[in-house]
Amino acid sequence: MLTVKNIHQYYGGSHILRDVSFEATLGKVTVLLGRNGVGKTTLLKSLMGLVPIKSGSIELEGKPIHKATPYDRARAGIGFVPQGREIFARLTVEENLRMGLAYKSGSTPIPSELFDLFPVLKQMINRRGGDLSGGQQQQLAIARALAPKPKLLILDEPTEGIQPSIIKDIGRVIRMLADRGDMAIVLCEQYYDFAQELADDYLVMERGEVIARGLGKDMEAQGVRQLVAI
Ligand SMILES: Nc1ncnc2c1ncn2[C@@H]1O[C@H](COP(=O)(O)OP(=O)(O)OP(=O)(O)O)[C@@H](O)[C@H]1O
Ligand SMILES: [Mg+2]
């Protein structure tokens, strides 16, 4: 679904991403691990087109997208859940979900399935985003990204600052979405146990480089826990 080849990215003179290559496959969860500041968010933003890459290529279903705008990448089927959620605090839950459909035609309904995945959003449909708990906001951000039915879902640290019961719910939803087989999922995490439970494939980054990769089931044996321990 997604093929990233040899990408390099700079913020001014700082070389942040160094020759990063990986693939994300339909039906699988690809987990990107790494400590604070190694470039995880920068990598995910460059997939979405929110930061430009200097060289390398990004293909979605075999088509190059690295020159496309974020808007066009969303239209091409990428859903993005940013770090810190970035929901619209003054808009209602329903309005936030409609924002996820902004590039679809005006009559596209909010898929009812989103409320099966996250029943709390149905109860809160008329509440303002800013009145939700952190965990509920995270569920809203994921639902907003899912609303246009993406083929590739990108999540940036979805467990950050969220209570354990909601982390479990979010993990279940991510697994279920992958198991349906019609979506590729790329997830970056610092919470090792959550990452290990979900990973079909993993990558570990350090200072902008991929320093380890493999199958999720081998993470423990390959000592990934130690690589990302703080
Ligand atoms: N807009 C920016 N301008 C300049 N430097 C930046 C910018 N955003 C991030 N950086 C730097 O790029 C590096 C990678 O940051 P990035 O946010 O990608 O890391 P991260 O792995 O997502 O970290 P965290 O786990 O804390 O979210 C850091 O050294 C950071 O200071
Ligand atoms: Mg980050």
Walkthrough of the structure:
This protein is α/β, with parallel strands linked by helices and 230 residues long. It has a single domain, classed as Rossmann fold, CATH 3.40.50. Helix content is 33%, strand content 27%. The strands form 2 sheets. Strands 6-7-8-3-9-10 form a 6-stranded mixed β-sheet, with helices on both faces. Strands 2-1-4-5 form a 4-stranded antiparallel β-sheet, covered by helices on one side. Strand 1 and strand 2 form a beta hairpin. Helix 3 packs parallel to helix 6. The longest helix is centred in the last third of the chain and has 16 residues. The protein is globular, with a radius of gyration of 17 Å. The chain starts with a strand and ends with a helix. 41% of the residues are buried. The site of magnesium ion (MG) has 4 residues, from helix 1. Magnesium ion (MG) binds next to helix 1.
Which helices and strands, and how do they pair?
Layout: E1 2-11, E2 14-24, E3 29-33, H1 40-48, E4 55-60, E5 63-64, H2 70-76, E6 78-81, H3 93-100, H4 113-117, H5 119-123, H6 134-146, E7 152-156, H7 164-179, E8 184-189, H8 192-198, E9 201-206, E10 209-215, H9 224-228
